[in-house]
Design a protein that fits this description.
It is a single chain. By secondary structure, this protein is mainly α. It has two domains: about 5-185 and about 300-325, Rossmann fold; about 210-290, Tyrosyl-Transfer RNA Synthetase (Orthogonal Bundle). It contains 14 helices and five strands. The protein has helices spanning about 20-30, 45, 55-70, 85-95, 100-105, 110-115, 125, 130-135, 150-165, 210-220, 235-250, 250-265, 270-295, 300-325, and strands at about 5-10, 35-40, 80, 145, 175. The strands form two sheets. A three-stranded parallel sheet has the order 1-2-3. A two-stranded parallel sheet has the order 4-5. About 35% of the residues are buried. The structure holds tryptophan.
């Protein structure tokens, strides 16, 4: 039986951080053994909000290196750059005819972007979900691992697939959002202000590229308080987050010891952060070093990019052939 097709995309508008690693990339790495996976650096999507392309090449190379260092394997998955696949743009054109201005305008992510970039409300931003649907449908993917914030885009992609199938012919299987278990591990920002993210406070975000001392500095600055004063007091979310980080990178005994200290109201957050900082350094260091060495190996990186392009185009071309036949766009 052929394996189900998984597809996900990541914008090259920031670098990988610990939240991406645990919220997304680690799951992609696991999916590689069970599914036919496509992972795409979506540079066209990046252009909707970041039209300055001076650093794009450098950024795409770094992001790819970090993804590879995190365990994405070009022998198992198809890892490619969106703009090298013209079939995505062609499908985007066809799907645009099935997408209504009204529905695109009322997409919450569009409204957010309009608020954030009131002077750059370009048509690409409006049709962002159509481009994302093209990414997914061009490979006839059915499982789309995304976070909560992108689930609605996957629903829109499903609507377009249904609309196309009904209007022309059954070409697309219907895609769904997908992840292991119920909830993804959600890592919070170290300053206690919501999700760890690329755009927020850099000092509260641990990047896979941070050097040892920077990691230590960021962890030591993480938000804490004067500690619990009564047994059984619930942990505030920024403390819960430090424990979560520790559960990921530290030894079981160390986590257990600080849990007991918390329980007894004798916890010293300074000591906890020192331990966490050292364990985080040990965790990040090999990934960072691997990413740097991949990024410096231009021959290898070029090979990976070309191989991904070849495989992704071959598969996308098959879909476009079906699409054009279904639409009667075949004249010879
Ligand atoms: N819009 C997604 C984000 O901002 C990125 C993306 C583009 C994507 N195309 C995709 C994700 C296809 C999953 C599938 O995170």
């Amino acid at each position: 039986m052929p394996k189900e097709i998984v597809l996900s995309g990541i914008r090259p508008t920031g670098f990988l951080h610990f939240g991406n690693y645990f919220g997304a990339v680690k799951n992609w790495v696991r999916m590689q053994d069970e599914y036919d996976c496509y992972f795409c650096v979506v540079d066209w999507h990046g252009l909707t909000t970041h039209p300055d392309t001076k650093e794009l090449r450098e950024n795409v190379h770094r992001l790819l290196s970090e993804l590879l260092a995190s365990g994405l394997d070009p022998e198992k998955s198809v890892i490619y750059v969106q703009s090298s696949i013209p079939e995505i743009a062609e499908l985007y054109l066809y799907l645009n005819m099935l997408a209504y201005k009204g529905e695109l305008e009322k997409t919450p992510t569009f409204k957010d972007k309009v608020r954030q970039h009131p002077n750059n409300v370009n048509a690409g931003l409006l049709t962002y979900p159509v481009l994302m649907a093209s990414d997914i449908l061009v490979h006839r993917a059915v499982k789309v691992p995304v976070g909560k914030d992108q689930e609605q885009h996957v629903e829109i992609a499903r609507d377009f697939a249904e609309r196309f199938n009904r209007r022309y012919r059954d070409v697309f299987p219907l895609p769904y959002g997908f992840n292991y278990g119920e909830a993804l591990t959600k890592i919070l920002s170290l300053d206690g202000s919501g999700k760890m993210s690329k755009s927020a406070n850099e000092m509260a975000t641990i990047y896979l590229n941070d050097d040892d001392d920077l990691i230590r500095k960021k962890i030591m600055k993480a938000k804490t308080d004067s500690g619990p004063t009564e047994k059984g007091m619930p942990k505030p979310d920024y403390i819960e987050n430090l424990f979560l980080l520790m559960q990921i990178v530290s030894k079981y005994e160390d986590v257990a010891r600080f849990e007991t200290d918390y329980e007894n109201c004798s916890i010293r957050y300074g000591d906890m952060k020192k331990q966490l900082a050292e364990d985080m350094v040990t965790f990040i260091k090999p990934i960072r070093e691997k990413a740097v060495s991949i990024k410096n190996d231009k021959t290898y990186l070029t090979k990976v990019i070309k191989m991904g392009e070849e495989k992704a185009r071959a598969n996308a071309a098959k879909t476009l052939k079906l699409v054009k036949e279904a639409m009667n766009l075949n004249y010879v």
